[in-house]
């Protein structure tokens, strides 16, 4: 069952951003919105995604992102089908 929700991604080092973007691109079909806020002075960044997908697919995305060094991921999904 598809749900709608958000994924918050914090990059402690923006050098990992290309890999993060590559992974997000592999799940582009379920990303309905995105915002990125870089902190150029400190070399960090925050990315927010609005997603629509199954628990399994959102979990696969967040799991892959969370396995990257220096990346923290949090997500929340609706409890009802959209």
TrEMBL record:
Pfam family for this entry, one: TM1266-like
Domain of life: Bacteria
InterPro entries linked to this entry: Acetolactate_synth/TF_NikR_C, ACT-like_dom_sf, FeFe-hyd_TM1266
NCBIfam families recorded: hyd_TM1266
Protein name (database record): CopG family transcriptional regulator
Record organism: Candidatus Onthenecus intestinigallinarum
